[in-house]
Write a structure and sequence with these properties.
There is one protein chain. The chain is mainly α. The protein folds into three domains: 1-55, no CATH class; 58-157, Tyrosine recombinase, N-terminal domain (DNA polymerase, domain 1); 171-352, Orthogonal Bundle (hpI Integrase, Chain A). Helices cover 48% and strands 7% of the residues. The protein contains 15 helices and five strands. The strands form two sheets. A three-stranded antiparallel beta sheet has the order 1-2-3. Strands 4-5 form a two-stranded antiparallel ribbon. Strand 1 and strand 2 (20-25) form a beta hairpin. Helix 4 (79-96) packs across helix 6 and helix 12 (298-309) packs across helix 14. The longest helix is centred in the middle third of the chain and has 20 residues, at 125-144. It is globular. Mean pLDDT is 84; it is low at 357-361 and 366-376.
Amino acid sequence: MRVNLKGVHRVRKRLASGLFATYYYAWRGGPRIEAKFGTPEFHQAYVMAHEARRNRPVDTLNAVFRAFEQSSDYAALADRTRKDYAKHLRHIEAEFADFPITALADRRTRGEFLAWRDRVGKSSERTADYRFAILARIIAWALDRGLVPANPCKRPGRLYRGSRAEFIWREAEEAAFFAKAPQHLHLALTLALWTGQRQGDLIKLTWKAYDGTHIRLAQNKTRSKTGKRQLKRVAIPVGAPLKAALDAHKLSYGEQGNALPETILVTLRGSPWTSDGFRTSWRRGCIAAGVAGLTFHDLRGTVVTRLAIAGCSVPQIATITGHSLKDVEAILDAHYLMRDSGLGEAAIVRLENAGDCKPDGKPPPSGSAPEEVNGG
């Protein structure tokens, strides 16, 4: 008799040998079930895992974690974010699921949480910061709802101090990618370089969003001051290189007698990309092109850089990329233009063209009248 086990999560992975294996978990983010799928032993392990989950005391952090997973805040997270939360929450639960809620009011608790973060940080500071941020967010959520007495995880600072200030796609990397990366990834690079949008928004972009002159989309990553996910609509004028690429791509479907797919970016088989699938293919494309140390997300900062070097103002850049004015200013100030020589060169050219300097390199005396030209 076949029994439907609700919530079983399966993950298919490629092994080092090149073969595929399927792993089963009692639920997404839950413990892995080692027994063979479909056997009585598998069913027993599934039941025991769920009984252990239900029978944990309600006065522990486990109850808080479960409540957060069932909340509208959790449901409002982007799909990729929820997947990341589930993965890291499994590690957090292993450490703190049985932690008493009342102990959160003890001043020593903060030190215990920070010590855990430091231990994780020995392997990866970025992972440690991310897991601690998830824990802090969940406890802050619970505090707002009166489920816990205190939040000892507020403002912990960060272990990882890295910056992507120098991680910009230069013309050499761009040319190498177009020359050596698979053809079906070229349009993705062009779209990213001419829109400055995130990977998640671009792989979901439909042909209906392009009207020949503009691309209109709703960014899904934007958050309000309360932390709620909200849609931010942007209308991006399509530059000539991007228009040429889009129109040629669209025309090719008709010439080949194929129906136009719903999304602009598709796999080799013509199906929509998944986030993981695109990320894997993009990484392989970068390897083929010899582009190292750069990510797809770095293209977003690259666009901010190029627009600034072209003389665009902060509001103009924000209109294209969808950043807030404050975020654009922060990017220009701290991340992308700090060491970009192109900005300095562009500034000098603008100064020379402005005519603010006399031929001898000295500015005109303060208060002096402008020189007459042609006796005029």
